[in-house]
């Protein structure tokens, strides 16, 4: 079951705003709940997920028919789950293992420019996004796997850029790149990598109809 609400509206200083809220209930009928002894109960997992986002954009016409649009976004996402976890190696029971809260923010600027003598445009965008995720019930482990009292957090930072060109009606060429880093206070990484950097790029074409 899901509820979604979104809208956009005019703001002061000739700016535009948008906001959305999404609430979803998920039932995992094939995933039984883990109890304190590491055994499976008859009941199955249920999650309640909430997310909310808002953005503010400031489109400005500049010389040559170009439009420059700086803006920023903020958001929150959270999950509440009745599923637990049991670490058999350390005989450790962790209640509500999938609960988390996540805050995010981003800033970017886009430029739309007409091509000389043609009814075509090229578009470019640069952006930076940050996010912090707190797993409110998961204790941190050190490099050897021993549990500590603090809870796991993740910090993510992503920089991105895209450029696209109108080549013909409904046909575009595009290029994009992303560079991101994630760090965490979780030091046990035999099963999952918590500290890493990534880089990706894409060159391609698209057709819209």
Tally the helices: 0
Mean pLDDT across the residues is 95
Order of helices and strands: EEEEEEEEEEEE
Query: What percent strand?
Result: over 45%
Radius of gyration: 23 Å
Poorly predicted runs = none
Name the features.
209 residues; mainly beta; 10-stranded antiparallel sheet; two-stranded antiparallel ribbon; elongated
Describe the structure.
The protein is mainly β and 209 residues long. 0% of the residues lie in helices and 74% in strands. The protein has no helices and twelve strands. Strands 1, 2, 3, 4, 5, 8, 9, 10, 11 and 12 form a ten-stranded antiparallel sheet that branches. It has a two-stranded antiparallel ribbon with strand order 6-7. A hairpin with a 5-residue loop joins strand 4 and strand 5 (67-81). The radius of gyration is 23 Å and the shape is elongated. The model has no long low-confidence stretch (mean pLDDT 95).
Short description:
With about 210 residues, the chain is mainly beta.
């Amino acid at each position: 079951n899901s509820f979604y609400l979104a809208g956009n509206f005019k703001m002061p200083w000739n700016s535009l705003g948008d906001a959305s809220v999404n609430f979803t209930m998920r039932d995992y009928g094939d995933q039984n709940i883990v109890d304190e002894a590491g055994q499976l109960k008859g009941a199955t997992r249920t999650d309640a997920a909430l997310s909310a986002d808002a953005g503010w954009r400031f489109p400005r016409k500049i010389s040559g028919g170009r439009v420059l649009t700086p803006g920023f976004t903020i958001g929150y996402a959270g999950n509440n789950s009745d599923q637990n976890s049991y670490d058999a190696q350390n005989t450790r029971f962790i209640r509500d293992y999938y609960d988390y809260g996540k805050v995010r923010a981003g800033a970017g600027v886009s430029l739309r420019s007409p091509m000389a003598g043609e009814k075509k445009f090229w578009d470019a965008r640069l952006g930076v996004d940050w996010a912090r995720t707190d797993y409110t019930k998961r204790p941190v482990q050190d490099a050897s796997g021993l549990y500590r009292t603090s809870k796991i957090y993740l910090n993510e930072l992503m920089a991105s850029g895209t450029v696209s060109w109108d080549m013909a009606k409904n046909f575009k060429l595009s290029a994009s790149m992303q560079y991101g880093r994630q760090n965490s206070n979780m030091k046990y990484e035999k099963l999952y990598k918590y500290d890493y950097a990534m880089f990706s790029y894409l060159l391609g074409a698209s057709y819209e109809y």
